[in-house]
Specification:
The protein is an alpha+beta fold and 113 residues long. The chain is 30% helix and 35% strand. A 6-stranded mixed β-sheet has the order 1-2-3-4-5-6, with no helix packed on it. A hairpin with a 5-residue loop joins strand 4 (64-68) and strand 5. The longest helix has 12 residues, at 35-46.
Length: 113
């Protein structure tokens, strides 16, 4: 069983990312939503494979990744259970969808740089 504990603060320019890990949950608090692109680029650069990470976790508890921004909007990624897990291993839940739609062009511009 893999258990994750700890906290980390990363600074990108004048923005910060607070990463908090507790058991099977990793929470990212982003001071600016455009940092989401920086996080995705980091995952891509490190060539992280979340399927292998999730397989190493205890099967009795589900892995969760929670991304929050100052507006209160969140994106939660969890491991699926049951038969859909084979085809769709992760479930994504989004709160305050209108906020994410509103900033989609900003996120796209950051991605295109």
């Amino acid at each position: 069983m893999l258990s994750i504990h700890g906290a980390l603060v990363m600074e990108v320019d004048d923005k910060t990312i607070h990463l908090v890990a507790n058991e099977q949950t990793i929470t990212l608090h982003l001071s600016d939503p455009t940092l989401l692109i920086a996080c995705l680029e980091l995952v891509r650069a490190l060539k992280l494979n979340f399927r292998y990470l999730i397989r190493g976790l205890d099967s009795s508890s589900l892995f969760r990744l929670i991304i929050t921004v100052p507006s209160g909007a969140t994106i939660t990624v969890t491991e699926r259970t049951g038969w859909p897990k084979r085809f769709l291993p992760l479930s994504i839940a989004i709160t305050n969808k209108s906020y994410w739609v509103k900033i989609a062009s900003r996120l796209w511009q950051c991605y295109r740089r």
